[in-house]
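Dear U.,

For the methods section draft, I wanted the exact inputs and outputs in one place so we can describe them consistently. I've listed the two proteins in the order they'll appear in the manuscript figures. Please don't edit the token lines directly; just add comments below if something needs changing.

First protein:
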Amino acid sequence: MKWQIAARTLAVIGLLLGGLSTPRALAQDPTGPKSVDQPDVGAAARAGATAYTDQLIIKYRANAGIEALQAAGAEQMQTLSAAAGVSLTYFREMSGDAHVLKLPEALPEAEVAALAQKLAALPEVEYAEADGRNYIQATPNDSLYTQQWHYFAPITGTYGANLPGAWDIITGSVNIRIAVLDSGILFDHPDLLDRTLPGYDFVSEPIVANDGDGRDANAADPGDWVSNNDRVNHPSLFGNCPVLDSSWHGTHVAGTIGAATNNGTGVAGINWVSSILPVRVLGKCFGYTSDIADGIRWAAGLPVTGIPANPNPARVINMSLGSGGACGTTYQSAIDAAVASGSVIVVSAGNENQNVSGFRPANCNNVITVAATDRNGSKAAYSNFGSLVKISAPGGTGGTGSPDAVLSTLNQGTTTPVPNNAFYQFYNGTSMAAPHVAGVVSLMLSVNPSLVPAQVLSLLQSTATPFPASSTCSATTCGAGLLNAAAAVQAAQGAPILNQRVFLPIINRDFGSSGLVPNGNFEAGATAWTQYSRLGYLIIVNNFGLTGVTARSGSHAAWLGGDHDEESYLQQNITVPAGAPYLSYWHWIRSNETLPDYDVAYVNVNGVTVDSFSTYTVTNTGNWVKRVVDLSAYAGQTVTLQFRHITNSSQHSSWFLDDIDFQSTP
């Protein structure tokens, strides 16, 4: 598979799902977050409602007769604590006859302001307000930062990704990891030291791997140069490859995402805190789809045969690679599994100046495909385009070394790497655009880790900077607009927390018997099934929270509905056995809806409804119940079998499915 040069496991939320009396929004801890992803002091300013503080300021009226001793007294603290609804302790007296009080823990500043309003309502209080935290503005001091135009706020002539505004909110989280599926990285680059995890090398062909063996636990880039001797001695591998020096492609991509920042030297990275997980899937000239697919699953924390489990699943996966051709089942199934586990996958559109529909994995479903733009906000001449592009980001122009390209970490070695080489270079390509999006996504997840992949894409697109009037881009060619990091991160903080189905990694799954329906018991995750949720929920899950539902067999089942205005479905193409044409499935209905025909479940074959019923209080099953549908009219035919559930905007319903099969008799 050729690739473009220069071109979670879902973090388990420590909150249980709400019961049927509430929509599927996670019930947040009423005392507020216990571990807030705040930037280091001097790194970024948390602004407005996105800030946190553990203190408030109070001043008493002059005629209230409350002296400093009384203000610090236990009786007064009890009065204030009762009014605020939270335990307060006296901290110190301050200038202007005001006093500083401590909260038991840091809360969002907006919540502290609300507590202060309760205190201000007391007759003896002149005013009370949150004691906000203030930081220096987050402008990196890296020596080459001024040349990274691609990070700057968009102005005429320089349409960067607006990173400074995002850094004023957050610079990353230690709980978020970003996987770079690429040629490996150079761990000893001074701007990548202490920014990476060990990762893994998935290049299975030793000659292509160029490191003396096949797969191993060393994701370092040994160099991907191709010589004329390679072409002559291994024509079946490299006969179609040009003679090239080593690209250090993965190192350049990794630097954009997370080079050490604010360290006074080199370049800045988009994420200053989160770790980079290198996953080596590309060797000399190319990488095989099979290796990349395994790398996708492993990066997301999913099991890969013969490979140790990934102890650091990535919430973001960057894939600056591709080739011509259809997406294919291998790619799509790996991507679907990773996204179902909570990983956001960002892919470069490709550098052929053609419609992206002809290039994989950019044409796969469930990925964020990124086109490249230049300083002026126009499509870079090389960038692929089309309706499958989701968003654009700076990829640069002018070629290697041009100040109009993207500056990041590199190495001066033409074949093997120069040790500890503090080298930086301008590259351009959609390979450079994608890591801008991946880095911003990691900031969005840092500030709101509950976001599901569908929400992330929606927020990126809804906050994108419109293409300038002079741009050669449009919504039909370059996606929703230009990446706007500040707006996306700000929107992520205010995004509603979805009650996402918690999908836990199971290394030793009990796959059970799937019968005549491939993966009819869902024990292989999303394998064979296409799943859709309008609200972005996971469908195939192994944890049902407080609903009281458990899988009928094994550990997995499907969960459709469960919130207001939700439409979700599962489907697969399947042959109805001539000797067993009766579809059987087990279901469990849990509903708060009191009226029929508002929340409805359907079983469809080729778009025709063969079974349907209202999901409301009258049809609640209380346990797993079997239903059988006669599909004799389709015996011997290959059809699209779909289970669909639609809920309205009032009460909501959940429809659980398990053990779908065919049988010979009703």
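Second protein (the one for the lower panel):
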Amino acid sequence: MFQNLSLQLFLLKMKDSQKDKFASIISVLPDSPGVYQFFNQLNEIIYVGKAKNLKKRVSSYFSKDRYENNKLKVLVSKIDRIEYIVVESESDAFLLENNFIKKHQPRYNILLKDDKTFPWICIKNETFPRVFYTRTVINDGSKYFGPYTSVYMVKVLLDLVKQLYPLRNCNLNLSEKNIKQNKFKSCLEYHIGNCKAPCIGLQSSENYLHSIDQIKQILKGDIHKLIIYLNELMQEQSLKFKFEEAQLIKNKIEVLEKYKSKSTIVNPSLTNVDVFSILDDKNSAYVNFLKVMDGIIVQAHTLEIKKKLDESVSDMLIMAIIEIRNRLSSESKEIIVPFQIDLELNHIKFTVPQKGDKKALLDLSERNLKYYRLEKQKKSEKKKEKHSSKRILEIIKKDLNLKSIPEHIECFDNSNIQGSNPVAACVVFKNAKPSIKDYRHYNIKTVDGPNDFASMEEVVFRRYKRLIDEGKSLPQLIVIDGGKGQLNAALKSLVKLELKESVSIIGIAKRLEEIFFPNDPVPLYLDKNSESLKVIQQIRNEAHRFGIKFHRNKRSGNFIKSELEDIPGIGEKTIEQILTKYKTIKKIRSLSQDELSSEIGRIKSKLLIEYFNNSKFI
């Protein structure tokens, strides 16, 4: 407590001294919009900010009203020099601040997560431009559309373009000189109708670029205008009696209408609108952007902002709006936002909708943010879980002196009451977590009476004989619920199957939680708080629970013991299936072979009928 108090006093004194140090600079700062930069003693930019009024904004850092913010106190204590740049307008200040942050990445500025890995659609800067998807934006004069949050959306758009316009996909240098010199030959794409062969002069540059202009309209979302243009062109072709050309144009219109109908989610009268929403989290904020053209969402993007100085939600939203509009070259004249923000842009209208189609769009944007954050949280939890599981498995390997990390562990437990209905259970853990779909239970078939050792030997043999026969993976560790006797019984089966050297096996006795190893009379006692012991106990308890449940079900009649279990070729699942449907053996016996075949198949029904006919079964 006293340390914190002394730190607070130190920072307050530091702040007062800093205020005195920069008083002369603050006094001459202009009352104009601009960008300011704070430098430390190493001449590094540690913070960049924008302001409507440079004098008021910079002086606020040294105001007593802001003493409660510890992060700001630390920032101010490190300022060694202040520089500023005056600009014409607040929007210019936003752009300049954004550029400085990208370039210098100051320690105390919020970080905008880059999206270089998102897919874009590129129209290449070349004589006959190719249209393709890429994750790398190159400043070579090419036109990029995006970024898109879904590769699927990119493929949908490219498929639409391919349906409408035959374009080249080769990377040949189709210069006018090369084409005139007949340097190329037409390829398969021309012969199957996917390209008009500009490489051999069968398509002019003007005709090709006309298609590219229409593709740009589609990618910008101006589908409505394109459809109007194509309708006019179709009418012109019809009046000239060029019906084949008119039909081709009509086909394009139908494809565009179909695409538009699938994409329209709001009123088509909403043209060229940007939608922004923000979700504030503890250390980050998320901003979602939707671009709407003619009622169609043509772009969607989510930006993550890493906080540094407890920035306000309003400031973070403003920065994201400037960044995204600048990055995507948006020219929308209306921006829908969730609340009023202190931002003025030339000829731009900000709208805070309360109801109607615009509110529905804002709600959609906010819903996207919630899903985005939930997805991030799930990924983070999985990553932590994976890291935690790996760490625990490393500890188990070390504590039990195993040959390999036990990513796959199986545990066996026997269950019977005074020798009746003996059963066994096998539970499976993968990466230290239960793999319920791999759990198995067993009826003891070869052992008479309450003999835990023989039962364990039978079940372990059956389990791994089957895994070997089916070519499935074996566990790295087997846990036996019991002491030396059960462990040795299980070990006999591993020896028969020649698995003793390849699979590790231990036994855990309930009374003192001793860990027994094969051929070692001295048990291992793990610390009660050991993570290894806790995992082994969890596996053992789960096997016990699973076995007891099966035993209770069996005794309660859910799995009826019958002579049917003695029929070769009739397994537990078949018996359970027919008893669940027909309830009694008497009813099953009265069925014809055809009736049984419809339920369990021809071969099994034949086995049942033969058994009924050859036995005294009633």
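Candidate sentences for the figure legend, describing the second protein: The longest strand covers residues 296-306. Residues 1-13, 556-561 have pLDDT under 50 and may be disordered.

Thanks,
Y.
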